[in-house]
Amino acid sequence: MARADRPAVTEPAPADGPPGGESARRAVEAVWRIESARIVGALTRYTGDFELAEDVAQEALAEALVSWARDGAPANPVGWLLATARRRAIDGFRRRSARDERYARLAGRLAEGEAATGALQPPERTDELPWDPDRVDDDVLALMFIACHPVLSAEARVALTLRVVAGLSSEEIARAFLVPVPTVQARITRAKKTIGAAGVPFELPPADERRTRLGAVLSVLYVIFTEGSTATSGDDLLRTDLAREAVRLARMLAALLPREPEVHGLLALFELTAARFPARTGPDGEPVLLEDQDRRRWDRSAIRRGRAALDRAAAAGRGLGPYGLQAAIAACHALAPSVAETDWERVVLLYEALGRVAPSPVVELNRAVAVAMASGPQPALDLVDDLAATGRLAGSHLLPTVRAELLSRLGRTPEARAELDLAVRLCANARERAVLLRKAAALADGDEEIRG
Question: 183, 170 in Cβ contact below 8 A?
């Protein structure tokens, strides 16, 4: 059967299509977005082939667009998709080899109760489930671990997770990361072939490997959310749809792994950060700095969910991990009435702890910002200058942005303007760049007033 990328289920129906085409498209899109992980997971368990499972699932979606527009959506849409995809898988095996041992195993599994797994369920079996409810959680977890397998590149893990676990189309992924659709399709195709070539089994990792492998899953979700909360490039600061998808996947993972504190720490970080989204941009999409945000617009329900998840992470008694520590920092901001009333001393301590368990130049830069708020700009500038000397943030607009702010607070305006000019040249996000240009203009106006 063909391995080419299937048409996106979110493509609008042609104008001259069947009358129910738009309704069918919405129904297919909704079912896939909610149930894609369970569908692909169940199909992978049935076929033993991850690539085949994703392909036949996409073929079933394409068939549903036509069939549901003509006949209406079935009473059990998930069962319909599974049955159609399984028949497609059988047809593919038959075409390749009627005597193939693998086909024989698959046909044996489907032969039992074959009539009851079709699109039209007989009256006597209307209660049949499309998958084994005792296996569904393991299916979804296994699918997450496969999509984030170490044999894949970081970009491939993100693309594959969004495609098969989150249910996003290639077009949606491409829009989210501002890359061409063929690039996303190629990443997904290569990822599936790599998994097949590496012989990655569809199963949960052994217990002794699970926590290590879990880190890769959490990292992928973190990358997705981070890109959604502060886009690295393009014309928008926020890509809320992408961030919300990461939140949904983190909630799913927390429900599947309730005893893993870092899963709850990651979810807490997402909830507490997303709570500020309503106040982070103005009417025209322009960024609103933390000190200027209307905190009444913050999502209090998300803050409560985030604090509850953070409490669950802390209750494990192992000490907060990297994501839990970041969530604790986000909680300091979420609970403070204003920037001035934030517990900056605690934020500094949390960043110091984070720097020990997950050292990075960005953590050091953020710690310097917290030090500036707690102790003044000069000790913070000393930290930033030490960081700049290492060259670890060369090419990033973040370091000159922070350095410009500290220099400005110290009255060293010409140096601050030079740093802002550098930050503008390095910043790839149009909205952030506009903020930097306004800051540079304000410094220039202030300098003119002083000279005048």
Answer: no
CA distance linking residue 158 with residue 193, whole number of Å: 16
Measured CA distances, 18 to 45, 71, 72 (Å) = 35, 10, 11
Residue 233 sits at the vertex; the CA angle it makes with 229 and 235, to the nearest 5 degrees, is 85
20-43 pLDDT, tens per residue?
678 888 888 888 888 888 889 888
Number of other residues whose CB lies within 10 A of the CB of residue 54: 26
Average pLDDT over residues 55-83: 90
> What b/e sequence results for 372-386 when a residue is b if at least 16 CB atoms lie within 10 Å of its CB, and e otherwise?
bbbeebeebbebbee
Q: Is the pTM of this model over 0.90?
A: no
And the tokens for 129?
A: 């489930």
| Torsional sign, CA 85, 87, 91, 94 | positive
pLDDT tens for 387-446 read 999 999 998 999 999 999 999 999 999 999 999 999 999 998 888 999 999 998 888 765
d(CA 397, CA 288): 18
What lies within 8 Å, CB to CB, of 91 at 6+ separation is 1
Which tokens in the block code for residue 428? Answer: 């790839």
